[in-house]
Amino acid sequence: MIVDLWVGPVVPVARCAASLSAEDAAAVRRAATPAVADLVATSRAMQRSVLARALGVGVEDVRIARRCARCGRSGHGRPVAVDGPAYSMARAGRVAAMAVVPDGVVGLDAEKDGVGSRAWVRGEAALKARGLGIDRLWAPEPQRIFDGLHLVDLRAGPQIGALATDRPVTSVHWHRWRPGPP
Prior knowledge:
- The protein is of the alpha+beta class.
- The protein contains four helices and nine strands.
């Protein structure tokens, strides 16, 4: 399986505004601080522009659903492309990343390199691939989250990351993301 990995800087809300839906803009307004608003806007704009490119549509035509795995309600939780490829989001400091696969499942995590961070990103990527919450790392049998998954370690400067997929990864295609139309 080929994984497309998009990486770009967290940018100010104003640079993302043209790519945001009304729901996205509302999420940005709910952010606790300007820095969190930039992160939310960047993540939402990246999702829409990368998915628009993959689907061959405009950003306004990309449909993303969110359903909480815990409470079952929509409007929050893991984002999923409606009629689109599987993907996962991550960030490390002021860098955002998005892994996209044509089918199957994918989980992505990234952190600044440090003691224990390789194990952490692998665990979180596996949890994301499974659609589980971080609390599962401390479950009675946390190693079972890796069963049947294929892990790929990543590095970009001082950041490290991991991909978890349900199929062997044959290659990772790195792309630079910038806000704006696809």
